[in-house]
Amino acid sequence: AFIVNRNDIAKPANVMNSDEQSDAFWKPKVKYSYPWRVRYINDTVFVYGLYAPFHFSHWMFNGLLPLYSIMRSYKATRDAWLLRAHMVDHQRNRTIPEDISFLTDGKDIVFDSDDILTEMQVVPSSIPICFARAVVVKQDYTVKFLNFDVGCSLPATAKLLEDVDILITPHGNGLGDAIFMAPKTTVISIDTRFYSETWFAFIHTAAGRRFYNFQCDSSECQVADFEMAKKQLQKDGIEMSYHELMEYLGPEYPYRLIDKYYPGEDKWGYLRYAKDAIRRVNVEKLVKFVNEIVEEWPMVQSKPF
């Protein structure tokens, strides 16, 4: 499957409605011109995935109902087509050959001839099929990138944030800027792996906003900033060996070294580093989390402040 566009505007989208381990992110290929011969269908193709289709409940609740919901939201006609992009835990000899013509009179494109179980399923034609529109996933929001590092006055900051529904920012002054957001909006603080605090949470929840701390607990999200750590240790009058510094900045919380070099009650030495350390996020999990927040908007907006 491909789109025709000068730029790669497609983004990977999760076509599975299941547990995180079964997520499947799919995107069409990009071509810059049309094939010399195509079959044009003036309708929409809906891309979807199936989870364990041999099991009726999974086939229905993880597959067809989410697909039906998307088709309804885009006002699909009876001539719309389907494209099955991915299947998880597939057992062909047990798959339920249920008729899904209640969804559409169009065809259901599958990539393996063994998946043709009813008259609806067809394998891709040797002649490319061009659809007027394709729906892979529903995302009714616009992503903005706000950079306050270059300097921004308070009135300008208030103007930038007046129509922001979800603010995602590293822990710091960006969370303070969210005070200009409307009630019933959401603030997400991207925290480092070993540092999190609730100071901003009290402010925003009191103002009627939802506040979340989001962090990646995987060691893959941890970035060891040697220069920052050395400067912090020098300020505290501490000198570590190379191997100790590697342990100090390693994937595990350095209890031993903290007790060794900060023997008193003040254990903030390491936390001062962790608070400002470079942070990464698991983008797929963050996008999924944002989508869940968006889905809850109607319920949140209907509640009295």
How would you summarize this macromolecular structure in one to three sentences?
By secondary structure, the protein is of the alpha/beta class.
User: Which class of secondary structure composition applies to the elements?
Assistant: alpha/beta
pLDDT averaged over residues? 81
Work out the helicity level. 25-40%
H/E element string? Answer: EEEEEHEEEEHEHEHEHHHHHH
The gross shape turns out to be: elongated
Biggest pleated sheet: 5 strands, parallel
Give the total of domains. Answer: 3
Could you tell me the number of beta strands? 12
How big a fraction of the residues is strand? 15-25%
> What's the end-to-end separation, in Å?
46 Å
* Strand order in space, largest sheet: 8-7-6-5-9
Distinct helical segment count: 10
| Regions with little confidence, pLDDT below 50 for 5+ residues | none
Organism: Paraglomus occultum
Protein name: 8946_t:CDS:1
Which features does this protein show?
10 helices; 3 domains; three-stranded parallel sheet; five-stranded parallel sheet; alpha/beta; 8946_t:CDS:1
Polypeptide structure, described:
There is one protein chain. With 305 residues, the chain is of the alpha/beta class. It is built from 10 helices and 12 strands. It has helices at residues 56-73, 154-161, 173-177, 199-206, 226-235, 242-248, 255-261, 268-276, 283-295, 297-302; strands spanning 2-4, 13-14, 25-26, 29-31, 39-51, 81-88, 108-109, 121-122, 129-135, 166-170, 186-190, 210-214. α3 links the parallel β10 and β11 (186-190). The radius of gyration is 25 Å and the shape is elongated. It starts with a strand and ends with a helix. The model has no long low-confidence stretch (mean pLDDT 81).
